[in-house]
Amino acid sequence: MTTANTEPKAHSHGLGQIPVSKLDTHGSHDVNDFPIPNGREEEWRFTPLRRLKGLHDWKGTADGTDETVVDAPEGVTVETVGREDERLGTAGLPVDRVIAQAYSAFEQATVVTVPRSLVSDKPITIDRKGLGGTAFEQLVIDVQPLAEVTVIITNTGSGVRAGSLDVHVGEGAKLNLVSLQEWDSDAVEVSQHNARVGKDASFKSVIITLGGDLVRLSPRVSYTGRGGNAELYGLYFAGDDQHHEHRSLIDHNLSNTRSRVDYKGALSGAGAHTVWIGDVIIGEGTEGTDSYENNRNLQLTDDTRVDSVPNLEIFTGEVQGAGHASASGRLDDIHLFYLRSRGIPEEEARRLIIRGYFLDIVNRIDDQDLRDHVMEKVERKLAAHE
Amino acid sequence: MTKFEIRGLRADVLISEDERQEILKGVDLTINSGETHAIMGPNGSGKSTLAYAVAGHPRYEITDGEVLLDGENVLEMEVDERARAGVFLAMQYPVEVPGVSMSNFLRSSVTSVRGEAPKLRQFSKELQGAMKNLAIDPSFAARGVNEGFSGGEKKRHEILQLELLKPKVAILDETDSGLDVDALKVVSEGINRAQNENDMGVMLITHYTRILEYVKPDHVHVFADGRIAESGGPELAQVLESEGYERFVKVGA
Ligand SMILES: Nc1ncnc2c1ncn2[C@@H]1O[C@H](COP(=O)(O)OP(=O)(O)OP(=O)(O)O)[C@@H](O)[C@H]1O
Ligand SMILES: [Mg+2]
């Protein structure tokens, strides 16, 4: 069993349980290990707590219901299990109070198992429609060695949702995960994606966040074998008063691991706020890490707010590549001029440029219909502000 | 018969929020359909400024004068309206627009300028033909607009757009610079084709007489210090090439 850098471990000079990295957060499954946040904490300072609908200070009973349809190719098992199931919570500890709250309170969980060597062209689709209320959830996706599969999670509807998605990508396995946040405009989602990427395994996550009142997603990756590759892509588009927050952490706890993080966002309309936190840790004693992270934001109107914070912490001299970039700005008026100088009306020119801006992220989705679907949603959001 | 008139045009370059500088200091020029006017002049004299100001580039502001296309006030039109009215600018430094494919861009632009979407098959045939004429590899259609194109490749694509959009008047800003000898010929043929097909008026900004061997000017103008300093026939180009611009440049300017 390998120990991830983000879990407390005994330090050599006798200080006991102290984190190796500043980026470390004390993870725990127990909500009582986290004080109630006041909004000044590092991990909460960008999030409007009052819009969490009580998640950070939960006292009620979870009354939410979903209508969920799972479609899985033959050979894949989908189980509904209780709290006692040993496969739950094994890919990473909750790192904030809301996620721990969800772990402490959930009643049922779903476990999807893709057996060894199963290679499927047909994706596993999980369509979840929130029917209101508050619900705590746990989902496990276990892709066993040498299996290859795509999982597409589509979130729609209304409600307040919090929980974890635990992903295991076994040795030599390959998982493409697409998660669409197409919530109604009053929905709240706070969730953590934990992925453990095995030896020579490959994990690709494409997160598309377009809906909701507040969406806060924390994708986290660590490795269980050398040669693991993780790619995290994201597209978000915050309209009027929407808060979209993505906080990724890649823990290069083993040698010869690779990661790419590329998130692109757009903001349009009063009160639109996006947050991207990109943490990368290159662990002590490791070598041959190859890591790069990038975040871009396009502010389509003036009354929007962007926070973009890359953090890279390196604890070894033997790095193959490590870099980050972050840039936020307005639509380039010279790009617009060029297209318009060829007769293309302003609105259409804007649309072309914004499509182009998102294209490389959308192209990370393998399925053409799904790519078209995402582009269409993006254009609809654009149209709302023309 | 089209008449393109620039009258007493003055324009500033907008340097920053509160800084600007006058570059065009009263430009007068009339181009009739079918005519080719070569504009030559020293670096920094304002030739590109003239081209950009006419096209409506956001970094320039016109302070006085007018630009008329068959009597219509071009300066009152939006940038895209100017193009649809028949004014085309081939830029000295064409802009890269990442992620927008050349083929999508060209189809949108042709649709806008012609006022209706061309039939897909017909358009792709037309595009392939036009690309072939300009010795552009078909693979460019799938690339981003000017994205990573070499200097010469960008210039060829400007002329490709010229040929597809069939404007009434074309301003070609140093389309010849950056072209190898073969490309210069191919591009010049493209300009001539567009002119013959459409009786287009041409304003050809250049530093070299070489292109003028292929694209024959009816008039040559010397552009210096923000205005036309002298005009003449094709022979003026030869004079400029051998004597330079010394006598047009103010001492100490
Ligand atoms: N942003 C700017 N700040 C200051 N000066 C500027 C700016 N943009 C343009 N200029 C100046 O405007 C003048 C005219 O430039 P322009 O590009 O029109 O010249 P040109 O005649 O096309 O030159 P060339 O032959 O080199 O292409 C130049 O002196 C240039 O330095
Ligand atoms: Mg110039």
Summarize the structure in words:
The complex is a heterodimer of chains A (386) and B (253). Chain A is mainly beta and 386 residues long. Chain A folds into two domains: 9-330, no CATH class; 332-386, no CATH class. Helix content of chain A is 13%, strand content 45%. Chain A is built from four helices and 18 strands. Chain A has helices at 97-105, 333-340, 346-362, 368-383; strands spanning 9-10, 17-18, 66-71, 77-82, 108-114, 124-143, 148-169, 174-181, 188-197, 202-209, 214-223, 229-238, 243-252, 258-267, 273-282, 289-299, 305-314, 319-329. In chain A, the strands form two sheets. Chain A has a 16-stranded mixed β-sheet that branches. Chain A is globular, with a radius of gyration of 20 Å. Chain B is α/β, with parallel strands linked by helices and 253 residues long. Chain B has a single domain (3-252), classed as P-loop containing nucleotide triphosphate hydrolases (Rossmann fold, 3-Layer(aba) Sandwich). Helices cover 34% and strands 31% of the residues of chain B. Chain B has a six-stranded mixed β-sheet with strand order 6-9-10-3-11-12, sandwiched between helices. Chain B is globular. Chain B starts with a strand and ends in a 10-residue tail after the last helix. The model of chain B has no long low-confidence stretch (mean pLDDT 95). The chains are: A mainly beta (386), B alpha/beta (253). The A-B interface holds A 333-335, 337-346, 348-349, 352-353, 355-360 and B 55-58, 78-80, 82-84, 89, 91, 94-95, 97-100, 104-105, 108-109, 112-113, 144-145, 161, 165. The complex binds adenosine-5'-triphosphate and magnesium ion (MG). Adenosine-5'-triphosphate binds at residues 13, 15, 21, 23, 41, 43-49, 92 of chain B. Magnesium ion (MG) binds at residues 47-48, 92, 173-174 of chain B.
